[in-house]
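Appendix B, Record 12. Input sequence as logged:
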Amino acid sequence: MASRKTSAPSPKPPATTVADGDIAAIVNGYHGAPFNVLGPHVVSVNDRTAIAIRAFRPLDAAVFVLDTTSGERTPMQRVDAAGFFEAVFEDRAEPFSYRLIAADPAGAEHELEDPYRFPALLTDYDLYLFGEGNLFYSYEKLGAHFVTIDGVRGVNFALWAPNAQCVSVIGEFNGWDTRVHLMRFHEGPGVWELFIPNLPEGTHYKYAVQSRFLGYKADKSDPYGFYAEVRPSTDSRVWDIDRYEWNDQEWLEQREKRQTFDQPISIYEVHLGSWRRVPHEEGGGFLSYRDLAHQLVEYVTEMGYTHIELMPITEYPFDGSWGYQAVGYFSPTSRHGSPDDFMYFVDYCHQHGIGVILDWVPAHFPRDSHGLAFFDGTHLYEHSDPRLGEHVDWGTKIFNFGRNEVRNFLLSSALFWIKKYHIDGLRVDAVASMLYLDYSREGGEWIPNKYGGRENLDAISFIRRFNEVTHGEAPGIITVAEESTSWPMVTRPTYMGGLGFDYKWNMGWMHDMLSYMEKDPIFRRYHQSQITFSMIYAFSENFILPFSHDEVVHLKRSMLDKMPGDVWRKFANLRALYAYMYGHPGKKLLFMGGEFGQWREWNEDVSLDWHLVETAEHHRLQRFVSALNALYRREPALHEVDASWEGFEWIDFSDADHSVISFVRRAKDPGDQVIVACNFTPVPRLDYRIGLPVDGAYAEILNSDAQEFGGSGVGNPHGVMAEPMPWQNCRHSATVNLPPLGVVFLKRKS
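Logged structural output:
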């Protein structure tokens, strides 16, 4: 009997097409290459090509694949109890368009896009430029951006963390579960990327970073984030910064002319959180950017300033740092509103002819765990050696200026504020701390450079590059260095060996003047050099004369309270100081509150004492500063030639016995001159003879001792007439009345 022949049973598809180790890494949230596992994949089943679609949905009871072409839905197999699902399509050899349908434990279904079916958006060229340090607009690529892929709108996240084992995007949308949205890793520069569909604007998010080293894990705010949650929260928020409609084209077209060296630049330095606050009965909180725009611009316009300089508004966690310990180098602080609100602030300033300078801090950053410090379990943004990477006295980290990606980060930040927020200039904080390796360090606490010197070669290179890039990409903007040493050529072009800044704060002049003015006038005769020494170096740089926030805190007393004498003399001294400042070569900067004579030191937690302006003395001082600004802007001699001896000439600086100095300021037209005579004692100098450069009648165009400003009224209301009597190296001279603790400005009548 012939035996019966039976066929072998058909092979069954495997329970899953992915290795157990990969499943475990996904469901436990430590897979470094999730796109190798999740989403659609071409696989081999029974020696035939098939398509496998995988998803990790830990909170769903069931998941289906919806073929968007045919409408067919296919149940996915739960291959791991933690929520790993897979569907294998043996009859398909090519990936197809699909969505997922997820059913919660209650049976409710919702349709969703699978993040793991979308391609990467970062190109090899992007990554190459980033690694090389030349992706100047890296904020367009890294961070969180609204994009549309294959008709699906969502947010593309990108993060630099080369030493992370894995990174995930966490937020409200996934219950802050670090396992759900693991990111794709790009070898080379070490950038992670993930597109998450259908996220709304305002979504809170962070990056969950797991390092390859030391078991380090941290939830980090987005270094390139455009918007942050209000402190003490440290979340980043998704925001579209490209939708605001600007109305400042006229300003931008004129900016380059408005900010040339021959133009008047008078800066009002402001801390937005304490300039003015919401009245106590309304909560005592911060004004919004939009409220500040209207109130501050009205005030600054009335006072005659040309620019507002904002103390750092780059997002910062600690109010007491005043913004100088920044975490968000691409986000305006949320204390005053949204990015759109800050754009409105700048736009409104420009529409009313006011420039905006931003205090920018590339020198250091705080240790806060959600910030840049030890970002991926390594010293990514900072130096690892504390002798290079820490400011111990400030409690901050120092950027590694020699690392291309860090330089790229900072250069992009600078351009970001200029391009996206139309900022007109950047004041760079703490430049001296960047230039010197031994800054605020004792012997043995710093490492010499390769030549054995104390100069920070990497920082110097970065600063020069910063100035080259910002001026190259945005002609007409200005950069200002807060540099407190005698480093040469800070404001000379880089091709000459300079650092490339437009201006430098004249810290020497500021310290000398305050030291002099704080002395009782009876002793000033012994310190005449303090008010004249600045002219030894006045034209070595392009200077701004600053009386900044740093001079009215930490027991240094307010500007008014620094002045010696009784109340009348304090006001008179301060008017004289400001008048000399406006006569002296250099652009001007005054910190808020100094213009009306705040008595107490500045406190970042409360509003300025605006009630003082209701009193006569303070109101008159305020009017005087306004008059100084008007004079400064009106008279070319006071601003056109600030960086050359052609714009300045001493008449006399040697009368120390009377504490009197006098000088000439000249415009580009040498015949356009203003005479400035200063008496720094409370004794009126009547019929005091001063030299004059040309003959004729001179009008007194401003007197700090005028009664309308709170003075005694000593002066020359009817002007003076030059006589052909040589005096003080001048061919002509005249007798003038120099008021007590006063300054007079004279100009030849045409």
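Confidence is low (pLDDT under 50) at residues 1-13.
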